[in-house]
Design a protein that fits this description.
This protein is mainly α. It is built from 12 helices and 2 strands; from the N terminus they run H-E-H-H-H-H-H-H-H-H-H-H-H-E. The protein is globular. The N terminus and C terminus are likely disordered.
Length: 311
């Protein structure tokens, strides 16, 4: 622009960028997973895995009621998690078919084997704790479930981040931390509900750490996602993620400040932590679906009047 044109007030107008795909069709296929099944699978698997870690800690530190309750809780959670996965697959045989291949580079293959190894360990630990039989075998199973627990709680984050879905793949570094923190919050909440107040100290401490870590991981993921972070903040996903943050922080605060003195406060805090974890998993799931369905997040912006292929 020349100085004479600047003096006359003329401005260079850049055509507005538009996000288009051929015939308005999505660039990638949105996952066909059912939210109730798969987001529920994420939540329940995380609850089971983190619960086994808390159960092992309680077992080692002389908190028998908490240990037994968390072992049973983890068994129930992983059973429901497997049921949700099989329901989404359509028939049990499809899950069995995934075990025909052992592929370390495939998160789905590793997850299937992980679930198959964790389930029997969690079952043996719970059975020994409830019946009082075979304590040494029960202790070994408890340790095994605790070792596999963190992987079970976080592998689903690797699974979704390995897809082309923008809201998941773009946050591939932060999602495992977010899922692990959310799982820890859920397990802490369950422990606060089922454990006596005198044994709830570790659960209350874990709840505060988990709530802090989840908040930091969410913020880091949104910063990395840039424009795609809109899917985490808007519509259904945004409402769920805001609810998750409010419930998790409120649950951790309630547990920390009053959970050790008041049994009702511990239960209320525990329920809030569980609900917050549910909202986190369903919120991340909804954000992924929204980002896959909107061409704005899957195509390079074109200048107005330009075809998507650049001609």
């Amino acid at each position: 622009m020349t100085r004479s044109r600047q003096r006359r007030g003329e401005q260079v107008v850049v055509p507005r960028a538009e996000f288009e795909s051929y015939y308005g069709r999505p660039i990638i296929h949105a996952p066909s997973w059912a939210a109730r099944d798969i987001a529920g699978y994420f939540f329940l698997g995380g609850l089971a895995g983190a619960g086994s870690v808390l159960a092992a800690g309680s077992h080692l530190t002389g908190r028998p009621r908490t240990a037994t309750a968390m072992k049973v809780s983890s068994l129930v959670a992983v059973s429901l998690s497997a049921a949700a996965l099989i329901h989404d697959l359509g028939r049990p045989g499809r899950f069995a078919n995934m075990l025909r291949v052992f592929k370390p580079t495939s998160p789905m293959s590793m997850g299937s084997w992980l679930l198959s190894a964790y389930g029997p360990a969690a079952g043996a630990a719970a059975l020994s704790a409830v019946t009082g039989r075979l304590p040494r075998a029960g202790a070994a199973a408890t340790a095994g479930a605790a070792l596999l627990g963190p992987a079970l709680a976080s592998y689903t984050a690797v699974l979704v981040a390995d897809t082309a879905v923008p809201a998941w793949h773009g946050a591939h570094r932060e999602l495992p931390y977010l899922f692990t923190a959310s799982a820890t919050a859920a397990a802490s909440g369950m422990a606060l509900i089922v454990a006596p107040s005198r044994e709830s100290g570790p659960a209350r401490f874990a709840a505060v750490l988990a709530a802090t870590a989840e908040s930091l991981a969410t913020e880091a993921a949104e910063r990395r996602l840039g424009m795609v972070a809109e899917t985490w903040r808007e519509r259904r996903a945004g409402a769920l993620m805001r609810s998750a943050r409010t419930l998790t922080l409120a649950g951790a605060a309630t547990a920390a400040l009053a959970g050790g003195r008041s049994r009702p406060a511990a239960v209320v805090g525990g329920l809030a932590l569980l609900a917050g974890s549910v909202c986190t998993r369903f919120g991340v799931f909804a954000a992924g679906i929204a980002s896959a369905e909107d061409p704005k997040y899957t195509v390079v912006p074109q200048q107005k009047g330009e075809r998507p292929d650049g001609h």
